[in-house]
Design goal:
CATH architecture of the largest domain: 3-Layer(aba) Sandwich
Distance between the termini: 37 Å
Oligomer: single chain
Number of helices: 15
CATH topology of the largest domain: Rossmann fold
CATH class of the largest domain: Alpha Beta
Radius of gyration: 22 Å
Helix content: 40-55%
Largest sheet: 7 strands, parallel
Structural class: alpha/beta
Strand order of the largest sheet: 3-2-1-4-5-6-7
Shape: globular
Length: about 400
Amino acid sequence: MNICYLIRSFSSQAGTESYVYNMSMALAQRGHQIHLVSLTGKGQWDFEGVEDKIRIHPLDLKKDVLERFSRFESIFPVMLWRYGRVIKKNLPAIINHHAIDLVEATDWGMDAWAYLPKRQVPVCVRLHGYPGFKDELDRGILKKWPKNYLCWAIQRRHIRSADLVTGVSKAYTDFVRTAWDLKKKKIRVIPIAINTKIFHPQDRGRGEQGILFVGRMEKSKGIEILAQAIPLILNKMPQVRFYFAGEDRPSHDPHQTWSQYLIQQFGQEQIVYLGSLSTPELVRYYQTATLCVLPSLYEPGGTVAFEAMACGCPVIASRVGGLVEVIADRQTGLLTPPGDAPALAAGVLELLQKESLRQEFSQKALESIRQQFDIKSTAQQTEEAYAQAIQDFKPNRRGPGSYAKTLIRSRP
């Protein structure tokens, strides 16, 4: 197959971009030809061994146009609109020239929304989720007019019109059905996969007692809850150090980032901010940390949990979303109630004080990753889903302009 992935940004080694890279590599190794269409080009990624199977198509989103209309961004999704139009203009030529069989887009990026009405090939939408989505829905701001509702309507139609929809977890697909009223839409769950040749344990033992947090330092990732748990942990075990890897974001004080706030509160001896790490650097921290903590308020799939478990690092996480499907509580890791700092602190202290329990979790987690979530298995499931979508595809099912009209009628 010739497969094309649409991804707005391909510049960092995390989240959705990590999925696209891992799946591209796995499918290329299975003999498929992969095309990546992105605004940022290749980014940091290395395609060693399959360079002839993966091709990057960088897009140009003219900044002067965006700057001219940026003042309207608060009421209209200018970036989304321009990005969709650029995809619509450039994608058909790529498809024709390279005989593309299927296109995959992201749910949050809405990459294919403008292309879908006159698509030449089947389109798959992968449900990854995005930061704060559940919070926006719960607070009732997802459908507020005009910008939020317009984005909600486009995203709903983007998913409903797709020929194939896959999700990272059953929990998240169920949530999406509710959020966009997609009761009749068939969604196939294909979990996040990990390349165990990249993410693996080391032979040497782990060093000092260190707690690793990986992800954007923001509310949805539970950084506030961890900040409240830190003094409870240090009160019992003052020698523990906390390592933070990921993008730093403003704290409750807009003039101070979370890393600055935590260092100010607890000192540089206890708080180490690592910044955004490359994959090899991240693997080394997974391999040496005593445990990894994921206090997210909601998590569609939980890539960090997969990565840490594959490296033999014990995981303590919130009992939310897709994390429940990844971590079997008190078997392959520890789950605590979301938003509960005392419970998080108690769980961390239990794991720090019980080496045998950490070893038990690590061993069972490794077995779980290798048996259920290895990239080879997931690539095969993805390949089968793509092949079925291509076989079932009926082109030109929509007339010109019908897509835009349905947006107006998309409110349930």
